[in-house]
C-alpha cells in the first residue's frame, strides 16, 4: 500500500503522524485504527479537530455533542477526516472563584492540544462566555485554520406574561426581593422559567456578545451568532461549517489572515451597535494580543464612541436573542455599519471573501428589534473609557446600560475593601449611605479576587432600594456580567491588589464621574494621594502554590486583556518530532 497524499496542494501537518511507513507512522495510525477507521482515511486528507467544550457542568454547552455530529457530517462530505476532541470548558455558572480565572488556562490547553496533535484545521465548538474567547485565543496562537461554531442562545424565557432574560431577570428579581416587592415563592417559580431550552444566555450578555464578536471578526460564518440552539438551522450551520473548514485547510486560510486590525475594528463597532458586554473589552484585547494586533483600550473609546446602539435587547433594551434572530440577526447590524461607512468592508472572513459580500443583502424583518438609527437606544453606544487619578490606566463604563442622570455625578465614597466586606456591610441599616453616594469595591481585579469576578454591579443597599431607587454610581476593579446593568465603572486599572489608586480610596472621599469628559477623579490633593500610595500595603498575601500562583504571578492588567504575560503572541503550528 502506498501513501501518496491525496489531491491536496501540499502535504498537511497530520501526515507527519499518519503519512508514511515508518515505525512512528505505523504507531500513530495503528492506534487510531482501534476506533475502526479504514486505512484510506490516512491518505493525506485533512484531519479536522472538532474542539468541543461540551460538558454536563457547562449546561450552556450541554447540546454540543449533538452539534458535533453535524459538524462531522459536513467534514466527511467535504473530504476531511473529523475527530472530536474534548477541551477545557470553563463554565460561567459553576467555576469558582470565577470562570475568568480559567480563561487563560483553557486557552493554553487548547493551544497545546492543537499544536501537539495531528490537527490540520479546527472547528471551535463553543458557547458559554469564556469558552468562545479561550478557544479563539488558543487557535490564534497556533495559527492553524479554525472556524467558530457557537451553540446558540436559549429560547425566550417567559414568566407571567413577561420575557425572562438570562441573568438580567435574576438581578432584577433579587433586587425586588431585597426591596420587599417579590416573594421567595415567586422567585422560585420564576427559576423554572429562566432556562427552558438548551443554549446559552438569551440576553445580549457575554455569551451572545462573544458569539457576535466571533462573527464580526470573521471567525464564524455569517448569521451564526443568533440562531437559537434548538432551531434546525443551528444544526445546518454546524454542518456547513464542517464543510467550510476543509476548504479553509486547502486554502491555508489562517486566523492571522482573518483577525487583522480591520477585523477588530469591525468587532468593536459591532459591540457598540449591539449594546454588547463590557467583557468583550478584555477578551478582544487578549485575542488581539495573541494575533500580534496592536489594539488598545483607547481604540475601544475611539471606535465605539459614536456608534448608536440599535439592537433592542436586554439588558440595554427589551427583547431577547430569539427575536434578534427572527429580525435578521447580526448581518443586518453589519450591513448598517457598512452603510454608515464604519465597517471595514474588505475584512476577510472564514468564507474566504470580504465581510461585505456576506451582509450586503441582509434584510431587517423587525424594526422594533433592530432599530432605525433615529430610534437608537443611545446615540453613543460602545464602551466609554474613563481616565483620571483614580484610573490612570483606564476604566470602562457601558453607557447603554447606565442611567442618564448619573453620567455626571459627584458623590461621597462608601468603600468596601473586598467582596466579603461588601457582603458583611451592605444590608446593615446603620451603614451611612444614600443614593447620592458612590459605592467603591476594591480587590476584585485579576490578581485581587483572584480572576476578576463579575461583582462590579454590586447590589444596592436595601434601604436605598426600598425608596424605589434602582441605580447608583458604583466603581470597582471587577467585571460585570454582560446581562447586568447600571452606572457601573469597571476594570479600574491598575487594580487595587497591585496598589492602584483605587486601593487608597477612603469612605468620605469625594469622587467625580463625568462620562462625557471621560473623567474619573478622586478629589483629594495630589500630595495626599501620593502619600497614601506610598503607605499602601497589599490586602492579601499571594497564593503560595498551584495554578492560583501561576495565575497571580503572570496575569496582566484588565487594560491589556488580563492574559498571561508568557502567552501573548502567536507561536505557530510547528512542534518538535516525537521520541518514539
Ligand atoms: Fe453560560 Fe450565560 S452562563 S452562556
UniProtKB/TrEMBL annotation:
Residues 368-562 form the Dihydroxy-acid/6-phosphogluconate dehydratase C-terminal domain. Pfam families: ILV_EDD_C, ILVD_EDD_N. It is an enzyme of class 4 (lyase). InterPro entries: Dihydro-acid_dehy_C (IPR042096), ILV_EDD_C (IPR056740), ILV_EDD_N (IPR000581), IlvD/EDD_N (IPR037237), Sugar_Degrad_Dehydratases (IPR052352). It comes from the Bacteria. Its EC number is 4.2.1.25. Keywords: Iron, Iron-sulfur, Lyase, Metal-binding. One of its GO terms (molecular function) is iron-sulfur cluster binding. The keyword Lyase applies. The keyword Transport does not apply. Residues 45-355 form the Dihydroxy-acid/6-phosphogluconate dehydratase N-terminal domain. Belongs to the IlvD/Edd family. This is L-arabonate dehydratase. The lineage of its organism: Bacteria, Pseudomonadati, Pseudomonadota, Alphaproteobacteria, Rhodobacterales.
Amino acid at each position: 500500500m502506498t501513501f501518496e497524499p491525496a489531491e491536496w496542494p501540499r502535504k498537511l501537518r497530520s501526515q507527519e503522524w499518519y503519512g508514511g511507513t515508518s515505525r512512528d507512522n505505523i504507531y500513530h495510525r495503528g492506534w487510531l485504527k482501534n476506533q475502526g477507521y479504514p486505512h484510506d482515511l490516512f491518505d493525506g486528507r485533512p484531519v479536522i479537530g472538532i474542539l468541543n467544550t461540551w460538558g454536563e457542568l457547562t449546561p450552556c454547552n450541554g447540546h454540543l455533542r449533538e452539534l458535533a455530529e453535524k459538524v462531522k457530517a459536513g467534514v466527511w462530505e467535504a473530504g476531511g477526516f473529523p475527530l472530536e476532541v474534548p477541551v477545557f470548558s470553563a463554565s460561567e455558572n459553576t467555576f469558582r472563584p470565577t470562570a475568568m480565572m480559567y480563561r487563560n488556562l483553557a486557552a493554553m490547553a487548547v493551544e497545546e492540544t492543537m499544536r501537539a496533535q495531528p490537527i490540520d484545521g479546527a472547528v471551535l465548538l463553543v458557547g458559554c462566555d469564556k469558552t468562545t474567547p479561550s478557544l479563539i485565543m488558543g487557535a490564534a496562537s497556533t495559527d492553524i485554520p479554525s472556524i467558530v461554531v457557537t451553540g446558540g442562545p436559549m429560547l425566550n424565557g417567559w414568566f407571567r406574561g413577561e420575557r425572562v432574560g438570562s441573568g438580567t431577570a435574576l438581578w432584577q428579581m433579587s433586587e425586588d426581593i431585597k426591596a420587599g416587592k417579590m416573594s421567595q415563592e415567586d422567585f422560585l417559580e420564576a427559576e423554572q422559567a429562566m432556562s427552558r431550552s438548551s443554549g446559552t444566555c438569551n440576553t445580549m450578555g457575554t455569551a451572545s456578545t462573544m458569539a457576535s464578536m466571533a462573527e464580526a471578526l470573521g471567525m464564524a460564518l455569517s448569521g451564526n451568532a443568533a440562531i437559537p440552539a434548538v432551531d434546525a438551522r443551528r444544526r445546518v450551520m454546524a454542518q456547513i461549517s464542517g464543510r467550510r473548514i476543509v476548504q479553509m485547510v486547502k486554502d491555508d486560510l489562517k486566523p492571522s489572515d482573518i483577525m487583522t486590525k480591520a477585523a477588530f475594528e469591525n468587532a468593536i463597532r459591532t459591540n457598540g451597535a449591539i449594546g454588547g458586554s463590557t467583557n468583550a473589552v478584555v477578551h478582544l484585547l487578549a485575542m488581539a494580543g495573541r494575533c500580534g494586533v496592536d489594539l488598545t483600550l483607547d481604540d475601544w473609546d475611539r471606535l465605539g464612541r459614536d456608534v448608536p446602539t440599535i439592537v433592542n435587547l436586554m439588558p440595554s433594551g427589551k427583547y431577547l436573542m430569539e427575536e434578534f434572530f427572527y429580525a435578521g440577526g447580526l448581518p443586518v447590524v453589519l450591513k448598517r455599519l457598512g452603510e454608515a461607512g464604519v465597517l471595514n468592508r474588505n475584512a476577510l472572513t472564514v468564507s474566504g471573501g470580504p465581510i461585505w459580500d456576506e451582509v450586503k443583502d441582509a434584510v431587517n424583518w423587525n424594526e422594533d428589534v433592530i432599530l432605525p438609527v433615529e430610534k437608537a437606544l443611545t446615540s453613543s453606544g460602545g464602551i466609554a473609557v474613563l481616565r483620571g487619578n483614580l484610573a490612570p490606566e483606564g476604566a470602562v463604563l457601558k453607557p447603554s446600560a447606565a442611567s442618564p442622570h448619573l453620567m455626571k455625578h459627584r458623590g461621597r465614597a462608601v468603600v468596601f475593601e473586598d467582596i466579603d466586606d461588601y457582603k458583611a456591610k451592605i444590608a446593615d441599616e446603620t451603614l451611612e449611605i444614600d443614593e447620592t453616594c458612590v459605592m467603591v469595591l476594591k480587590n476584585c481585579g485579576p490578581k485581587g479576587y483572584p480572576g476578576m469576578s463579575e461583582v462590579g454591579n454590586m447590589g444596592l443597599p436595601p434601604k436605598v432600594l426600598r425608596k424605589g431607587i434602582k441605580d447608583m454610581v458604583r466603581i470597582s476593579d471587577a467585571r460585570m456580567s454582560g446581562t447586568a446593568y447600571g452606572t457601573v465603572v469597571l476594570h479600574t486599572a491598575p487594580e487595587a491588589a497591585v496598589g492602584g489608586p483605587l486601593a487608597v480610596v477612603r469612605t468620605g472621599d469625594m469622587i467625580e464621574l463625568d462620562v462625557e469628559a471621560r473623567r474619573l477623579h478622586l478629589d483629594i490633593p495630589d500630595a495626599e494621594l501620593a502619600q497614601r500610595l506610598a503607605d499602601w500595603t497589599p490586602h492579601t498575601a499571594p497564593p503560595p502554590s498551584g495554578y492560583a500562583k501561576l495565575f497571580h504571578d503572570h496575569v496582566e492588567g484588565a487594560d491589556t486583556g488580563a492574559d498571561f504575560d508568557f502567552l501573548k503572541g502567536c507561536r505557530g503550528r510547528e512542534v518538535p518530532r516525537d521520541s518514539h
